[in-house]
UniProtKB/TrEMBL annotation:
<keyword id="KW-0067">ATP-binding</keyword>
<protein>
    <submittedName>
        <fullName>ABC transporter ATP-binding protein</fullName>
    </submittedName>
</protein>
<feature type="domain" description="ABC transporter">
    <location>
        <begin position="8"/>
        <end position="210"/>
    </location>
</feature>
<dbReference type="InterPro" id="IPR017871">
    <property type="entry name" value="ABC_transporter-like_CS"/>
</dbReference>
<keyword id="KW-0813">Transport</keyword>
<dbReference type="Pfam" id="PF00005">
    <property type="entry name" value="ABC_tran"/>
</dbReference>
<keyword id="KW-0547">Nucleotide-binding</keyword>
<dbReference type="InterPro" id="IPR051120">
    <property type="entry name" value="ABC_AA/LPS_Transport"/>
</dbReference>
<dbReference type="InterPro" id="IPR027417">
    <property type="entry name" value="P-loop_NTPase"/>
</dbReference>
<dbReference type="GO" id="GO:0005524">
    <property type="term" value="F:ATP binding"/>
</dbReference>
<dbReference type="InterPro" id="IPR003439">
    <property type="entry name" value="ABC_transporter-like_ATP-bd"/>
</dbReference>
Amino acid sequence: MQITGDNLSTVEMTKRFGGVTAVNGATVTFQHGKVNGLIGPNGSGKTTFFNCVTGMIKPDSGVVTYRGRTIMGKPPHTIARAGIGRSFQLCRIFPRMTVLENLLVAVRTTRLSALMSGSRNPAETERARGWLRRVGIDHLEHTEARNLSYGQQKLLELAGVLMGDPETIMLDEPAGGVNPALIGRIATLVRELNAEGKTFIGTAHGLVDSWG
Ligand code: ADP
């Protein structure tokens, strides 16, 4: 298969866990600049696929390319620096930190310089507040993350992903367990951010109407 352009692609990617083949020779190209979907029932390998692409686990075989370069086998921070951000099926947030602190930690884990500097960076704090406004939870800035609804936690996680300024955003089950009003907000955000140039790859275990 020819590897062209900026697309994120996998060729014959396979991952086995003992006797279970979680991803079986997946050859997929996601279009750069579009909203892409990966749909399949629970247990069909969507999360494993994401974990392989983002470097969290190593595929047994195959190739993963992004913007014409092989990213397979690279560590997660290198893949994040290449421009791919992701969320998790079960939100990854720090429940006892405030909403704002969560975003400042999110950026520190993707930028070593910020991690080393210790003190709070006013520009980064303003950027975090900007994303909180954008996802619609700025009024909850000082609330501990554990007190947010599940949908609000998903929005917080998305804001954390956006803090890393990725050009491609992989969302694992963004609508899973979220009430319809917040699904609508996430879908609107995805459409707006896509219009601003961000590529999306989202998983779902069924078709979600509001993504249409
Ligand atoms: P999906 O995201 O589509 O629900 P998963 O990627 O989570 O699917 O799982 C695909 C298959 O791989 C399932 O059978 C699951 O039990 C298995 N699996 C996933 N992760 C592991 C793991 N770390 N160890 C063993 N089996 C796993």
